[in-house]
Specification:
Largest sheet: 8 strands, mixed
Shape: globular
Structural class: alpha+beta
Length: 608
């Protein structure tokens, strides 16, 4: 097969950037280029990995970045060194004093055995030679293995076109895809759909009070969040409606603050007083909503506070409940239980208006976009201000889920991510990817934050303080406070203001756990104690009343055993002394076969 590269096109693209960046995309011709190298750019935090490519037209070569939606071409080996590609859509992104080509849409043509031509760096290539360079050179011959060809349907994807409202002057600057935005660009316009618009929310800082609102914007390449503050809120809030498409320009792109960001992009937009927002009547090439669903069984693989999309059947709708926050604010919430084909269930919490307006009749299929992952009592999900949900959406995933549940899923047994509270025995899945040593827990000062820190560790129980492993608790519903025996023989609970004939005995103990680096004193509560001793606290108390030595033997038998622990480090104040407590949330006895397979997979990763 003969290959003719689009010689001179890279230099022409770079020169045309100052005038019309997409000038060469309006025609039917795709640009044939060769990949000279592929270099993965390591992801930082929860960012998506990028791939940097050096591309050549046979005359010049230039730096480029592959759009994340095309990462699969690198992962599957379709794009590698010397691969021939056809580029159908691109954009130019300034990077410091250079320009980077963002490859938005491309397809693989063939694999080649070597470099075609002797290309020079486009940054030093004389512009006067461009016209001479476009004369085709003798074609290179290459063999095209069947395995390297991209599916014909992928090859026929149409290029997006830029449309302007017939009754408007159109965008002020060239239209860029969201994927290519960066803080180094000033003159840009995006054509995007508003998929979510928040309420106006007040905030307070050391510099004073203010207000803000944010919107989630989406085009065919990705999503980004935009935020307006104070006076800009009054100017722009009524101009944007959910579901509509807009031209947006003259705003500032900043690096996203991951603490507040809800999209997967590395950047966010700040709407300013001179920002222009104009409704676009042509909604072509702007999807209504895009999902990236995760199976409920895979939630353990996500980091705490990650943002994800899920689709499931509402198995238990839950009632609306009221509660008071630590700040004394009255809140309303609704907990629902979702299930899916992976035969897992998860608790999802809705807040405020979302909880009040939620309706789930006849166990509907609901797609949730942008929910937050938590780990209170196992993996949980929670809707936040930017989250949205769609009841019985007309998408393939929802139809498949509906058919599965009606035919067989309604009778299935589901694994639960949640233990139903803050502590638990062996429920859920141990997150080995978060495993740390006891020394790391101490050296990294875990527990210093206001909300505490969660960690996973593996260790051996070295010592259990046998003098106090349980206490007499209130048997009242959801109380569990310590009770005291009165002279009359009853047990008094000051919180409930009631007396009971008998208490409920619950475990509360401290034990030392050690690994090869250090040891930690862990606080253990009732459910964990049942796993450790193999019996309830009441059963151990009865044995202790009859034979204290036998009870002591049971406690000592819990020592010298290894477990996987899910823990929380939290700072507290005791007798005017600040200290960090380590509490056990979950515990799993070691399954050596599983641990051996896990170690084997780790070794394979190092060998890859």
């Amino acid at each position: 097969m003969s290959i003719e590269l689009s010689q001179g096109i890279i230099s022409r693209i770079m020169q045309a950037y100052d005038k019309t960046p997409r000038e060469f995309l309006n025609g039917p011709t795709e640009h044939v280029l060769q990949v000279l190298s592929v270099k993965p750019v390591p992801a930082k935090g929860d960012q998506v990995q990028r791939n940097r490519l050096i591309i050549s037209d046979g005359v010049c070569f230039a730096q480029s970045m592959l759009a994340t939606q095309a990462n699969h071409l690198v992962d599957s080996g379709q794009i590698s060194k010397f691969t021939i590609i056809k580029v159908a859509n691109y954009s130019i992104s300034p990077l410091n004093d250079k320009r980077l080509i963002i490859l938005l849409e491309l397809r693989v043509v063939a694999q080649h055995e070597g470099k075609i031509g002797e290309p020079a760096n486009v940054e030093t290539f004389p512009s006067a030679q461009v016209s001479a360079a476009v004369t085709p050179a003798p074609a290179a011959s290459t063999h095209v293995p069947a395995a390297t060809r991209v599916d014909d349907m992928q090859q026929q994807r149409t290029r997006p076109t830029i449309s302007k409202p017939s009754n408007s002057r159109g965008p002020a600057y060239p239209i860029y895809p969201i994927e290519s935005l960066s803080p180094y660009q000033n003159k840009w316009t995006i054509k995007a759909r508003c998929t979510n618009k928040s309420d106006i929310r007040p905030f307070s800082t050391q510099r004073g009070d203010g207000k803000l609102f944010n919107v989630t914007l989406m085009d065919e390449t990705g999503e980004i969040r935009a935020t307006a503050f104070n006076a800009v809120v009054d100017e722009l809030y009524d101009k944007i409606e959910e579901g509509k498409v807009y031209f947006i320009s003259k705003a500032r792109v900043n690096i996203a603050k991951k603490k507040f960001a809800t999209s997967t992009t590395d950047f966010e937009i700040s709407l300013e007083k001179n920002t222009e927002i104009e409704e676009c009547s042509d909604q072509s090439n702007v999807p209504i909503v895009k999902f990236n669903f995760h199976d409920l069984s895979k939630l353990e693989d996500l980091e705490k506070d990650a943002i994800c999309d899920v689709v499931g059947i509402v198995n238990q709708p839950g009632d609306l409940t009221e509660l008071t926050s630590k700040a004394g604010k009255q809140l309303v919430k609704r907990d629902i239980t979702l299930v899916d084909k992976s035969q897992y269930s998860v608790r999802l919490t809705l807040w405020g208006k979302q909880a009040e307006q939620f309706v789930a009749e006849n166990q509907p299929v609901i797609a949730f976009k942008g929910v937050k992952v938590g780990d209170f009592g196992g993996r949980t999900l929670s809707m936040i201000s930017s989250s949205t949900h769609f009841v019985n959406p007309d998408i393939p995933e929802a139809h498949l889920l509906r058919g599965w549940y009606d035919n067989q899923g309604h009778a299935a047994d589901f694994h639960s991510h949640s233990s139903g509270g803050a502590t638990g025995g062996g429920g859920g899945v141990f997150r080995r990817n978060e495993l740390v040593t006891c020394r790391h827990v101490k050296d990294s000062n875990m527990g210093q934050s206001d909300s505490g820190d969660y960690f996973a560790c593996r260790g051996t129980v070295v010592n259990v303080k046998a003098d106090s492993v349980m206490y007499a608790a209130c048997p009242g519903d959801k109380c569990s406070k310590k009770v005291h025996e009165s002279p009359s023989g009853d047990w008094r609970c000051e919180k409930c203001d009631r007396s009971y004939p008998e208490p409920e005995y619950r475990y509360l103990l401290t034990m030392s756990v050690a690994d090869w680096t250090d040891q930690l004193w862990l606080q253990v509560f009732n459910e964990i104690g049942v796993t450790l001793f193999g019996m309830t606290a009441k059963a151990l108390h009865d044995i202790q009343e009859e034979d204290p030595n036998a009870a002591l033997d049971i406690v000592q038998q819990a020592q010298c055993k290894a477990y996987n622990f899910s823990c929380r480090a939290k700072q507290d104040n005791w007798n005017d002394q600040v200290r960090v407590r380590y509490g056990v949330n979950k515990i799993w006895p070691l399954e050596y076969k599983t641990e051996a397979h896990s170690l084997l997979e780790t070794i394979k990763q190092y060998q890859a």
